[in-house]
């Protein structure tokens, strides 16, 4: 059993910054890709950023240059630094971990006010 716990719920004004973190625990043999998805009201869940265990990263176009994903393999933790936030970044953010299976966090609300 793998548990995924997110932290960093936030309310911020446009132009501000937030940092999300997500830690995996439990029966983990190896963590491969780690990432973040988001789902805004009335929209489908979409990829925000993903980082492989080689540290190669992929970002969605809307966040490229503003968000930065990183990981600490000693803690099985992934981070998402979000800068220059916009109201359209408002969504529930979900952590994703591929650890010989697909695991999701419970979701954390990020609200960006204009």
Task: Please outline what is shown here.
The strands form two sheets. Strands 2, 4, 5, 6, 9, 10 and 11 form a seven-stranded mixed sheet that branches. A four-stranded antiparallel sheet has the order 1-3-8-7, with no helix packed on it.
Keywords, separated by commas or semicolons:
114 residues, mainly beta, seven-stranded mixed β-sheet, four-stranded antiparallel β-sheet, globular
Description:
With 114 residues, the chain is mainly β. The protein is 0% helix and 55% strand. The chain is globular and about 45 Å long. The mean pLDDT is 94.
- Give the total of beta strands: 11
Tell me the series of helices and strands, N- to C-terminal: EEEEEEEEEEE
What's the oligomerization state? single chain
The poorly predicted ranges are none
Give me the number of helical elements: 0
Helix content: under 10%
Biggest sheet character: 7 strands, mixed
Q: Name the overall outline.
A: globular
Mean pLDDT: 94
Radius of gyration: 13 Å
State the end-to-end CA separation: 41 Å
Structural class: mainly beta
> DSSP strand (E) fraction?
over 45%
């Amino acid at each position: 059993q793998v548990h995924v716990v997110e932290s960093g719920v936030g309310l911020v004004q446009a132009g501000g910054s937030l940092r999300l973190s997500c830690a995996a625990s439990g029966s983990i043999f190896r963590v491969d890709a780690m990432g973040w998805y988001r789902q805004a009201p009335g929209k489908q869940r979409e990829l925000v950023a993903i980082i492989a265990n080689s540290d190669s990263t992929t970002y969605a176009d809307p966040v490229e240059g503003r968000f930065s994903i990183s990981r600490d393999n000693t803690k099985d933790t992934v981070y998402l630094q979000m800068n220059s936030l916009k109201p359209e970044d408002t969504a529930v953010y979900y952590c994703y971990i591929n650890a010989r299976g697909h695991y999701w966090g419970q979701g954390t609300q990020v609200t960006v006010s204009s």
